[in-house]
Design brief:
The chain is built from 18 helices and 11 strands. The chain is of the alpha/beta class. It has a domain of 153 residues: 3-Layer(aba) Sandwich (Rossmann fold), CATH 3.40.50. It is globular, with a radius of gyration of 21 Å. It binds iron/sulfur cluster. The site of iron/sulfur cluster has 15 residues, from α15 and α16. It holds the Pfam family HypD.
Length: 370
């Protein structure tokens, strides 16, 4: 296949669905790790086209959703300081902190700017030597290389008025944490292709061995996802638990060596808090000792800021696949994309927002009786 729309071909999708239906002899619960895959599954109705034997559980792979509330509050605190230019990708501006969001800080006079690359923020720092420029560096292994490169460049060019507010998280420790949970129902994983484009697949065999779960690396288009599910079901039915790469057009086994070298130089592995899940050991990155002077938390002394989550929001359970978004009592009532209570309703990759956007407003039992 040559063009993107070919990966949505309805005839091929139907054939894959038929094969999945013919292969699955019992119920299987498969988690798609990535929020981009969740969005694609709901947008294209893949979960509704699958046979009843296959349940898709939506995982914690939305970077905006898992960024802890206290990190959002730290961003708000830094962005409110005089002399600061606070730069972020646009999706973080509406994420509510304890009392406000970055849009509110901007409306109150804070210099908050949307950029399309961390290098844009570095350029702002170079052009404004009398200001402190901070970039909000969140996300998984996918966004980390560009952030690492920017800090490397800041050091190399001697741009000392630039810093990074870091909240990077890693997929493999999250898979381990999900499997360690006593309430875990997941029997197999679709791993995120773009993460593996950077990191390769070598981190996954220890997980398939330890937890005896298949992990199939796949992409984001409907046929990618269906092929990933098909391969996963074949493994489950055969009692196998292996790593398979169903996204070879983008993922090499060794990942991107240049990006990995940059990540190793700029970041150290650290424990990280995941919103709604809690601290997962060795599940994130922080700036390494060599680059610590570019750490915004340290520069602005916001490391001790601690905040509490909304008592109504059940995004933690959504992120762990324990409930579907419309099982939260606030879904579509107190909580909508215009008035989000939790990050999974704010982000376009969040499961709650995807369910709301594509009108999955009823519980399955309600829909059946409607
Ligand atoms: S619907 Fe809103 S309140 Fe409920 S879990 Fe999702 S984000 Fe939280």
């Amino acid at each position: 296949m040559k063009y993107l729309d070919e990966f949505s071909n309805p005839e091929l999708a139907k054939r894959l669905l038929d094969r999945i239906r013919a292969t699955a002899t019992r119920r299987w619960a498969i988690m798609e790790v990535c929020g981009g895959q969740t969005h694609s599954i709901i947008r294209h109705g893949i979960d509704q086209l699958l046979p009843d034997t296959i349940e898709m559980i939506h995982g914690p792979g939305c970077p905006v959703c898992v960024t802890p509330l206290e990190v959002i509050d730290k961003a708000l605190e830094i962005a409110s300081r005089p002399g600061v230019i606070f730069c972020s990708f646009g999706d973080m501006l509406r994420v509510p902190g304890s009392e406000r969001d970055l849009f509110r800080v901007k409306s109150e006079g804070g210099d908050v700017r949307v950029v399309y690359s961390p290098l844009d923020a570095l350029e702002l720092a170079r052009a404004n030597p009398d200001r402190e420029v901070v970039f909000f560096g969140i996300g998984f292994e996918t966004t980390a290389p560009a952030n690492a490169m920017t800090v490397y460049q800041a050091e190399r060019l001697g741009i000392r008025n630039f810093s990074l507010l870091v909240s990077h998280v890693l997929v493999p420790p999250a898979i381990a944490a999900i499997m360690e949970s006593p309430s875990c129902r997941v029997q197999a994983f679709l791993a995120a292709g773009h993460v593996c484009t950077v990191m390769g697949t070598a981190e996954y065999p220890p997980l398939t061995e330890k937890y005896r779960v298949p992990i199939v690396v796949t992409g984001f288009e409907p046929l990618d996802i269906l092929e990933g599910i098909r391969r996963t079901v074949i493994q489950l039915e055969a009692g196998r638990h292996e790593v398979e790469n169903a996204y070879r057009r983008a993922v090499a086994e060794g990942g991107n060596p240049a990006a990995k070298t940059m990540l190793e130089d700029v970041f150290d592995i650290t424990d990280r808090a995941w919103r709604g899940i809690g601290v997962i050991p060795r599940s994130g990155w922080r700036l390494s000792e060599r680059y610590r002077e570019f750490d915004a938390e340290q520069r602005f002394s916001v490391g001790d800021l601690h905040t509490a989550e909304s008592s109504i929001c059940r995004s933690g359970e959504v992120l762990q696949g324990l409930i579907k978004p419309h099982e939260c009592a606030a879904f579509g009532k107190q909580c909508t994309p215009r008035n989000p209570l939790g990050a999974t309703m704010v982000s376009s990759e969040g499961a709650c927002a995807a369910y709301y956007l594509y009108r999955r407003l009823e519980l399955p039992s309600e829909a059946a009786h409607a």
